[in-house]
Amino acid sequence: MSEAGGGWRRATGVAGVALGVLATGAAAGVAIERMTVGRGMRKKARLALDSAGPYGALRGTPGKAYADDGTELYYEADDLDPAPAPERRRRLFGRRAPAPVTVVFSHGYCLNQDCWHFQRAALRGVVRTVYWDQRSHGRSARGAAQLERGEPVSIEQLGRDLKAVIDAAAPEGPLVLVGHSMGGMTVMALADQYPELIAERVVGVALVGTSPGRLGEVNFGLPVAGVNAVRRVLPGVLKALGQRAELVEKGRRATADLFAGIIKRYSFASRDVDPAVARFAERMIEGTPIDVVAEYYPAFDAHDKTEALARFAGLPVLVLAGVDDLVTPSEHSEEIAGLLPEAELVLVPDAGHLVMLEHPEVVIDRLADLLTRAGAVPAGATVKGYGSSSTARPG
Fold it and tell me: Would strands 61-66 and 72-78 be described as parallel, antiparallel, or unpaired?
């Protein structure tokens, strides 16, 4: 191998690491006062987490949906009862029993459905939930339009994907839609393209660390000069890296320690995040191939769903994210809340992009309140307090 060739390999490897992590958060936002977790609650949370299994180990009833381009989309449902839902409703209420409320969770860029681990553990047995993997992420198949025809991903396509999952996993009954980062944009795209679904079936919405648009203005905590340089070269660099995916993946593995440090910086703000949680996030992000990172990137610059937010007017809406997110400024979520004045805006100090992993107790608490307001769970229902990812020892 020539010296020049080896240098190119090292350079693309490091670039792939940096770009892959920056891509991790293609959106984040704003929300709540930090809740104090006492010694007893921390102990209870850890015991509950131990009983729920390792991070990302929770599984539900698997299913498959098919997008309009034929892409196979993987989802899992957590029902309230082991019996199939239609059978259970007939048994309890007769042939015309109403369908239960279903809460559908959409994950963010370079993640998968397992990122909702704490929320999933807390909501089991309380409400019916569906978790799915976006195309080319997790257990879903690579996007057919991207793999076969080289088409870029669009946020509009993701909205149609979500509709396909809903049609397969929750074809009837009320819905609560929960989306983090790119998942929040997916929910907005669904509303933009299927307003009748929102009007007829959606009873609540949670937008966690997401953005209505203007993502091209994000500076990722970098100096202005550096950001401008990155914006000029990033599209071309990503395209080139995507075409040399195998080589770049080797570079990412070779620089794993650097990769982990960058992930932690752009994912979390707290100093006492459990190393196991940080590693869990790292594994999800590492699992996203660089060519998938590349094919998604243009979608975020084009994303603008500001007008679609009007579809949620009059519904119970939660807007929540970390104040210290370096990927998308808190102003993006504040903008969402400004356009939906009846929404609850929750600002979480000392929280970064992956707020549902960093401060799960806050997210669970506010989701439980949203589900109560939406009529998805009775006011007296108990949502388990799974949720401290901190390793700090309270005084």
Answer: antiparallel
